[in-house]
Amino acid sequence: MRGSAFLCAGLALLLATCGQTQLATAQTAATHQWLCAADRNGNGDATDEGEIAACGTVDGGEPLCPIDQVACTKGPDRHYACPFGGQYSCLSPDGIAPPSCSPHACIDTRAHPIETEIPIDDPGTLNDGAVDADGDCLGTIEIFGGRKLRCRPPGLSVTFQNCCKDKGKIVKDGMGSSSRAIGTKIAVAKGVFTGMKAAYTAFQAGATVGQAASAGANALIVGIDPTSIAISLAINFMMEVLLQGCDQQDMEAGMLRGSGMCHEVGNYCSAKILGVCVQKAKSHCCFNSTLGRIIQEQGRPQLKAFATGWGDIKSPECRGFTPQEFQALDFSRMDLSEYYSEIEARSADLIQSDMEERVDAYLKAVQP
Predict the structure, then answer these.
(1) How close are the terminal C-alpha atoms of the chain, in Å?
(2) Same domain? 109 vs 165
(3) Percent of the chain beyond pLDDT 90?
């Protein structure tokens, strides 16, 4: 009963505080026929707050950009002129009120659609490849392999919500159940993918946010040991990002990067209109564990095979180490204190208590 009450209370709180007015305004801008974009801070794009807006229609049906809009001034000849220059039109909202003007042009999105890059669907290295009669792997063995994932910070495509916002350490490195620790580390990426897909699919099919989050939790727990995931945080995370309009890959990256399992490679433009960037994306390589991410970050600089680092930002190189590369790593040159401190902070009693609490919370959340 307690888990069910928590889920309902969490949903009610999110619905009450998620900023519906702001979200509605952002969605209007994102779906409006006429848009204007301006690089006001000079950083080369129009993805920051106040740099993209829906153009309002004035008398006569002409669009007027609200960004940097000012009142026109009346000259001695009683004609209005735009302070920015004669090339900018002075327009009245109703033909009676004093006209205004803006130095930014409105773009017809029907004539000039927004160009959006489709995110790379990287399944990562598949487990359990072909083996010979002795059980030896016939394919390429990878150690600490990862997946390409992207999430999107505030911008037009995500209606100015932050789909890269970290929500804390939801998934842990199997430090709860010793019998399932190795399996957990292997299954993390697959489990997160399965859970996020189930939540997003359910939401797209018309489920409520709470129902979609429960579907995601049910699927997530199949792939990940329940002692390795803070299920209440996972449910809360899924409800929030679904309300923000984030997609499945945003959700996957958000959960794994917040759990310390992703290396951020860089930023790139994922959506443009007339050459102006209106949405950025953060590119990552995400791994099955925090330890995998740490060893990748500190091991790659030691190997000539990774001379280019993480490769192209839009499509980073997230492969694991070959056995030969892994044997060549000098672990004495690596700083694993981040991982050690995480383990040292959890005594045996705390681990046991954590296991019981997480299993109990999950069962009560999905079977109230």
Answers:
(1) 5
(2) no
(3) 49
pLDDT band at 181 (very low <50, low <70, confident <90, very high): very low
pTM given for the model: 0.77
**What is the rounded CA–CA span in Å between residue 221 and residue 280?**
32
Contacts 24+ apart (CB under 8 A), 256-259: 256/149, 256/171, 256/188, 256/189, 256/192, 256/284, 256/286, 257/151, 257/164, 257/166, 257/284, 257/286, 258/166, 258/167, 258/168, 258/169, 258/170, 259/169, 259/170, 259/171, 259/172, 259/290
Range of the domain at 59: 55-113
Distance CA 229, CA 368 (A): 19
pLDDT for the residue 232: 86
In a domain, 40, yes or no: no
Output the pLDDT for position 123. Answer: 75
37 in a structural domain: no
Q: Is residue 132 part of a domain?
A: no
Together in a domain, 83 and 176: no
